[in-house]
Design brief:
This protein is of the alpha/beta class. Strands 1-2-3-5-4-6-7-8-9 form a 9-stranded mixed β-sheet, sandwiched between helices. It has helices at residues 5-24, 33-44, 49-67, 75-86, 107-114, 160-165, 194-205, 217-228, 263-278, 287-297, 312-316, 342-349, 366-369, 371-383, and strands spanning 93-94, 117-122, 127-133, 143-146, 170-173, 210-215, 233-239, 324-329, 353-359. Helix content is 41%, strand content 13%. The termini are far apart. The chain contains 14 helices and 9 strands. It has 2 domains: 5-91, no CATH class; 107-249 and 290-383, 3-Layer(aba) Sandwich (Rossmann fold). Strand 6 (210-215), helix 8 and strand 7 (233-239) form a beta-alpha-beta unit.
Length: 384
């Protein structure tokens, strides 16, 4: 496609302006435009914040002139506009730091998780952050983990190691609006996460099908994602997923905590909420469980989520082309006495339902409360 003359002149001027700005910072690029297109974005990520912002805003402003509207010029979105304007793909960025694993994990587990990488893909109002461990192996699709509501990748801290031991690459997202990820565009519920997740998986893996594992809200989101983009997954594993339409009313009540003045008062409410929703055995609400839960709920920026209390997952399952597995704690607080009706409902809704595995003695956060039993169940589902 031929560019209008005015647009071509603006792009050449912008390339020259960016090359000049980079040269002032000691980064010299050849005159050849193709070299600038190939290398400039990489250097952009290495610049001090102010220089990064100036170059990114220049690029975003000129991109709007030639290519229509662009996202708001926050740093990550300036980089996206910069890429599009120069004819570059919107590749995932390697971020400059990896969040410390929870401090109360055993040292060996902390050190192993700390060897992961943080990547970022465009996520609506900023970055969608992915935590990645291991390398891809031929014949073994990556395992993608989607956490639950008011959570982050740390919902899976006890399960990543066993997946790595099995030779799998692991990608754990911070869903939009949780953890280190920016809120999604155009909504505050699971349906608003579908577009950035689909784009992120495409950028990270180039369309390679994955084994997708979703916990709670992450399971609901995974179902919505595959209903719209069925080619993204080889199989789906739902863990404690809501929105199956079986429960006539909410089975638990959480307490508010943000208005409380002292950390002690807040911790008491956090213990209550973990007990009524997340963990069946109150004795397991230890320092690690509290550390994870408190850090996660403090970064929840998506209030008023409603889809989990509907039957939207049940209504989307008929669209799924891949095998569907389910793993739940037998004492899951979302379902309680309705838990044993799940298998029949899944079989009725999902065209290729492979079975429900119930974990004895565990509640909603089954992969944390009973990690060995859960990991064995997940391994069976992934290897089938």
């Amino acid at each position: 496609m031929t560019c209008p003359q005015g647009f071509a002149q603006q792009r050449t001027a912008t390339l020259n302006r960016i090359r000049g700005l980079l040269s002032e910072l000691g980064i010299v690029l050849p005159l050849k435009a193709a070299t600038v297109r190939r290398e400039a974005l990489q250097h952009l990520e290495d610049l001090p914040g102010r220089a990064n912002t100036v170059i990114g805003q220049n690029s975003a402003r000129d991109a709007r002139r030639g290519a229509g509207s662009m996202p708001h010029s926050k740093r990550a979105q300036s980089a996206v506009a910069f890429s599009a304007f120069l004819g570059l793909p919107t590749l995932p960025r390697t971020m400059s730091f990896f969040a410390d694993p929870p401090s109360l994990l055993p040292l060996a587990q902390r050190e192993r998780l700390a060897r992961g990488r943080r990547l970022a893909t465009p996520g609506g109002q900023g970055d969608l952050v992915w935590h990645v461990w291991g390398e891809r192996r031929a014949g073994e699709p990556p395992v993608v983990l989607l956490h639950g509501g008011s959570g982050s990748w740390t919902h899976w801290v006890r399960n990543i190691g066993p997946l790595l031991d099995a030779g799998r690459q692991v990608l754990a997202a911070d869903l939009p609006g949780f953890g280190d990820s920016a809120p999604p565009p155009g909504g505050t519920d699971a349906d608003a996460m579908v577009a950035p997740l689909a784009a992120g998986l495409g950028a990270l893996l180039g369309g390679e099908p994955v084994d997708l594992v979703g916990f709670s809200l992450g399971g609901l989101t995974a179902g919505l994602l595959l209903a719209e983009h069925p080619a993204l997954a080889r199989k789906l594993v739902l863990v404690g997923a809501p929105a199956m339409g079986l429960v006539p009313q909410r089975q638990f009540e959480l307490r508010a905590w943000r208005h409380l003045k002292t950390p002690e008062a807040q911790a008491e409410v956090h213990r209550h909420n973990l007990a009524v929703l997340m963990l069946h055995d109150p004795a397991l609400i230890d320092g690690l469980a509290l550390e994870l839960h408190i850090a996660n709920v403090q970064r929840d920026r998506l209030p008023r989520r409603r889809l989990a209390h509907t039957d939207i997952l049940a209504r989307r399952l008929p669209r799924l082309a891949c095998p569907v597995h389910a793993i739940y704690g037998v004492h899951d607080a979302i379902y309680r006495q309705y838990i044993h009706a799940l298998a029949g409902e899944f079989a009725r809704r999902a065209p290729d339902f492979r079975g429900l595995q119930l974990i004895e003695g565990a509640g909603h956060w089954v992969q944390f409360e009973a990690p060995e039993a859960f990991d064995a169940a997940l391994r069976r589902a992934l290897e089938e």
